[in-house]
């Protein structure tokens, strides 16, 4: 069950990277979106298979996404950056809670 937020973030980050590239031909958006999406995908698979460091990987990906999207959301107030910023902060809080519960 705890892998579902990572699957959602995989889809959102990948879609955001592809949309950023399609709209502005921004290669950094594509690389970052697909890269962070891949991190979330690895985290989801790791959590699902009950292996080590899945929650930590998801938290790291959430922090990376929040670090880049929260300032952009504040600056532009556009719906997609705001959505990604909120989702990354909520996902980060969720996985922080899961890590604390584990320890």
Automatic annotation (TrEMBL):
GO terms for cellular component: membrane. It comes from the Eukaryota. The keyword Ubl conjugation does not apply. InterPro entries: TMEM14, TMEM14_sf. The chain crosses the membrane at residues 29-47. It is found in: Membrane. Its main location: membrane. The keyword Membrane applies. Pfam families: Tmemb_14 (PF03647). Keywords: Membrane, Transmembrane, Transmembrane helix. Belongs to the TMEM14 family. This is Transmembrane protein 14C. It comes from Thamnidium elegans.
